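[Q] Does anyone have a clean structure-token version of this?
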Amino acid sequence: MLQFCSLYSGSSGNSFLIKSENTAILVDSGVSVKKITTALDSANISINNIEAILVTHEHIDHTRSLGMLSAKYNIPVYANSKTWDYLGNGKDKIADSNKKTFNVLEDFEIGDLKIFPFHIPHDAADPCGFNIYNCGQKISVATDLGHVDSKLLKHLENSSSLLLEANYDPEILKFSSYPYILKQRIAGPNGHLSNDMSGEAICRLTESGLKKALLVHLSKENNFPELAYKTIEEALLSGNSSLIDISIAPRNNPSEMLDAV
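[A] Here you go.
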């Protein structure tokens, strides 16, 4: 059975755990080594059992400890070629044998997990999300994306479980203290996903069997967990969609371990 949880989530740092009965991987490592190892311990997972780190994109809140974590625990790191080109944050610490390059839109395998990376719209070199498969189950990870179009929805279809960004509420962002240019970036087509857009995507995905969603990367300044939850719930109700299990990833501590369904 596939299981997943958020270790940390938000603009200060992101890292997610995906595990099957035999294989455990991280998606991103945007907080310190100590925070990641402590969070894994709380989930009863040893860092020594992590078989790989997948990188969505090069921004520091997704890669802060990447080099040190790989070097200290001999963990392979998987990223696409453009992300490798732009990656800082200790890339030189990663052993050449642990630098793995994947092609977006091409499957690869880690242990008993099949992984399919897909393009997402964000202001990075070549950002991607991941579909992760095991024993007929599919989990999708899509964070840091400015919008959801039909092509992206197609990649997310038939996911039973989904980690999806719900970064900001448009009205809160409008009146926040952020500089205008930053507000424009966040709300732009290559920025971040609003609660409303997240809700619309989740409604569409219930049509292909989505049962569980973990909302990730909530802004500390421009969102509230209760508001994100309410927005998605209201979108499901107004769209006459099936109600699903919705959870919010905490900012500074791990979420509960969730079973894919």
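[Q] Thanks! Anything notable?
[A] The domain at 3-259 is CATH 3.60.15.10 (Metallo-beta-lactamase; Chain A).
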